[in-house]
Design brief:
This protein has helices at about 10-15, 20-35, 45-50, 90-100, 110-115, 140-155, 165-170, 190-195, 205-215, and strands at about 40, 60-65, 120-125, 130, 160-165, 180-185. It has about 220 residues and is α/β, with parallel strands linked by helices. A 4-stranded parallel sheet has the order 3-2-5-6. Strands 1-4 form a two-stranded antiparallel sheet. Helix 7 links the parallel strand 5 (about 160-165) and strand 6 (about 180-185). The protein is globular.
């Protein structure tokens, strides 16, 4: 697995790439992709970084695991490729955007349009074996993505971190909330949303308000 990541991230992540855990992770991922069907495709593993350059990061959304169905994952958390049926969590995200901002429900579930505006759509684990949720967890990806969150916290300011659900909320310890903004809510999955922990969180309008206060511009959600 070639670490095909945008140059803007390399000064901050080169040290991670040289650590033993990352070398072991690369070996594991290479073996998995050689012997099993895995997602996303190899050239999309670092899509979150390649479409949201370090200097452009304004918002971070943290997911857990890539989608494990055929054609779904594209390297951005909660996002699916064009012409793919929207998964339940993504449906609820779009419903909240619609309710919060009055933006019509979109046809495409591809969130590249968010990433290209400075929204880092970061899964804690960047790969998965087909039809086996969580199959690449605890192999080193979480160490790497925790390092990413920490370096953003350390080297930037006024980033809005959106922590949805219990797993994402655990990452708050990596974020300096004196320099950054943290918005928390329940997860957009039906289990959480239908219990009243997701809808009406207004995270999209709140994020734009916070960005506007520091002249970082609005996200076109």
């Amino acid at each position: 697995m070639k670490v095909d990541i945008h140059d803007s991230w390399k000064p901050f992540l080169q040290e991670e790439f040289e650590k033993e855990y990352f070398k072991n992770l690369v070996s594991f991922v290479k073996s998995e992709y050689k012997n099993f069907k895995c997602f996303p495709s190899g050239n999309q593993i670092f899509n979150a970084f390649n479409h949201c350059h370090f200097n452009d990061v304004r918002v971070v959304i943290i997911g857990q695991d890539p989608y494990h169905g055929v054609g779904q994952a594209n390297g951005l958390c909660f996002s699916v490729n064009d012409n793919i049926v929207h998964p339940p969590s993504l449906i609820n995200i779009f419903k909240e955007v619609e309710s919060d901002l009055g933006i019509p429900y979109p046809k495409s579930g591809n969130l590249l349009r968010w990433a290209n505006q400075g929204v880092l759509l970061l899964n804690a684990t960047l790969t998965v074996r087909a039809h086996q949720a969580g199959s690449h967890q605890k192999k080193g990806w979480e160490i790497f993505t925790d390092a990413v969150i920490s370096l953003i916290s350390k080297n930037k300011k006024d980033v809005v971190f959106l922590l949805w659900g219990g797993f994402a909320k655990q990452k708050v310890k990596l974020i300096d909330n004196k320099k950054h903004h943290v918005l928390e809510s329940g997860h957009p999955s039906p289990l959480s949303a239908n219990r009243g922990y997701w809808f009406d969180n207004k995270h999209f309008s709140k994020t734009n308000f916070l960005l506007e206060q520091v002249d970082l511009g609005l996200i076109e959600w």
